[in-house]
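About this split. The held-out portion is used to measure sequence recovery: a designer receives only the structure tokens and must propose an amino acid at every position. Recovery is the fraction of positions where the proposal matches the reference. Here is one held-out target exactly as it appears in the evaluation file.
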């Protein structure tokens, strides 16, 4: 077994180089901070290249490292990593050792407290820089309760019963963010990209979504459609229905240059690593990985979630935090939890802020336009 020195890092990274990939089972476990400082950039570059290419050839890796500020000497060490690489069947034990080393380091390191004067200087500098950057929603009342919108590093859950409009609202938020120039990535495990595009176009043009699906588009709708298409075409908005696992989502987001907002639809359909068998633990793993991703990339992550089936017995009742499906841990991971509540066949919809780490709970009134699968804000009146 390799000891806790830099040879441990080299054996693991070298094994990945020899494989030309990072095996799926290990991707969510490999945080850069587990590695020694002089190897963290190598791992980050590997994950970025794999996210783009699906593999890690030497030349693209060298280019990525140079792009991330690595010097010639650091790039030349890659050749030494090949010779230090472990065999694939040794990787599980080596990564276990890597995590144990990180735990030992955390147990022995004494965190340095920050004097109040330094904390005040940091706070004053932030205040002078202006309001915290946030991704606004399309709804003014909701933004006011959320201090402007979704802040960097926040994990936001949007939950509701099937058919309550979760995906529609998420796409409205995506379109708003992208319209402000914020690079937005939508990962859907529920709907194919073509269906998402159809919904976005119906929302933007405010035409009947069923017309787009059937292809029977009237003359008036055609005019609105032609006006909406250029508005969408130039947006910094990306979509995929091909990211099946949390590892793929993490790599995809990390490789996306300048990403400002990640939307995942939805939590319970994202696959956890195969070695996690219990359903509750699978969902918790995905939730924790999304929170870590939000913090690491410094972006908000909006994740849709289903509700527990117990909610189906009382469809007229407003959902509560204990109904987040599969695990009560979700509410602890989240900075914000939003619920959509609408009575069957009624357009009036309540967007409930059930958790707001930096603000208070409230609700905002929306109107669901079923024809264009879009939401409008009713007024500034809120029910609390």
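Reference sequence for scoring:
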């Amino acid at each position: 077994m390799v000891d806790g020195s830099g040879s441990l890092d080299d054996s693991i990274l070298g094994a990945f180089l020899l494989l030309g990939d990072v095996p799926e089972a290990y991707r969510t476990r490999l945080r850069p901070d587990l590695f020694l400082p002089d190897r963290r950039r190598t791992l980050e570059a590997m994950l970025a290249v794999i996210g783009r290419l699906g593999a890690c050839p030497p030349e693209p890796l060298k280019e990525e490292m140079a792009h991330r500020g690595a010097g010639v000497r650091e790039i030349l060490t890659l050749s030494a990593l090949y010779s230090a690489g472990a065999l694939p069947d040794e990787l599980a034990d080596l990564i276990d050792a890597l995590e144990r080393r990180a735990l030992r380091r955390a147990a022995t390191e004494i965190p340095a407290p920050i004097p109040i004067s330094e904390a005040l200087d940091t706070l004053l500098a932030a205040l002078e820089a202006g309001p915290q950057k946030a991704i606004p929603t399309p709804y003014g009342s909701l933004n006011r309760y959320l201090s402007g919108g979704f802040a960097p590093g926040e994990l936001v859950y949007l939950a509701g019963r099937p058919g309550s409009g979760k995906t529609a609202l998420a796409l409205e938020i995506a379109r708003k963010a992208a319209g402000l120039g914020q690079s937005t990535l939508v990962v859907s495990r529920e709907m194919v990209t073509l269906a998402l595009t159809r919904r976005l176009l119906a929302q933007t043009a405010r035409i009947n979504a069923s017309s787009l699906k059937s292809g029977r588009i009237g003359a008036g709708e055609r005019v609105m459609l032609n006006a909406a298409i250029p508005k969408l075409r130039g947006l910094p908005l990306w979509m995929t229905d091909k990211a099946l696992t949390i590892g793929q989502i993490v790599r995809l987001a990390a490789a996306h240059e300048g990403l400002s907002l990640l939307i995942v639809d939805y939590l319970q359909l994202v696959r956890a690593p195969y070695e996690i068998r219990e359903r509750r633990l699978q969902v918790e793993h995905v939730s924790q990985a999304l929170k870590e991703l939000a913090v690491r990339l410094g972006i908000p992550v909006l994740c849709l979630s289903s509700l527990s089936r117990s909610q189906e017995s009382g469809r007229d009742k407003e959902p509560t935090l204990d109904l987040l499906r599969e695990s009560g841990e979700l509410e602890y991971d989240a900075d914000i939890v939003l619920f959509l509540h609408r009575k069957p066949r009624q357009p009036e919809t309540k967007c409930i802020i059930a958790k707001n780490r930096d603000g208070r709970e409230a609700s905002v009134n929306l109107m669901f336009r079923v024809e264009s699968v879009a939401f409008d804000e009713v007024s500034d009146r809120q029910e609390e």
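Annotator remark: The beta strands are 155-160, 184-188, 237-240, 261-265, 301-305, 336-341, 348-356, 362-369, 374-377.
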